[in-house]
Design goal:
single chain, about 90 residues, mainly beta, OB fold (Dihydrolipoamide Acetyltransferase, E2P), elongated
Length: about 90
């Protein structure tokens, strides 16, 4: 009666695929309505004029045009001002 004692279990061995986040269209590129400009988790980049931000913080183009990235100051809830990138379509 041979058997293996105390084999234990394998935990935390799962691996999930990447979410394909990041900037999809860069500054100066043409964009059409509804195209994804940035996929992100959280508001690291802000949506400006000509864009819409969806529930998962993806920034889409609200109109045809050219993508522009600018830096602007944003006031946090604590009152601190920090620089954030703003995405616009002109």
């Amino acid at each position: 009666m041979s058997h293996v004692k105390a084999g234990g279990t394998a935990k935390n061995v799962h691996d999930s695929p990447g979410q394909r986040l990041g900037v999809k269209l860069f500054g100066g590129q043409k964009v059409k309505v509804g195209q994804v400009i940035v996929r992100q988790t959280g508001m690291s980049k802000r949506g400006g004029v000509g864009t819409k931000v969806s529930r998962n913080y993806t920034i889409h183009a609200a109109r045809d045009g050219v993508v522009h990235f600018t830096t602007r100051k944003v006031r946090l809830f604590s009152g601190k001002s920090v620089a954030r990138t703003e995405v616009t379509v002109e």
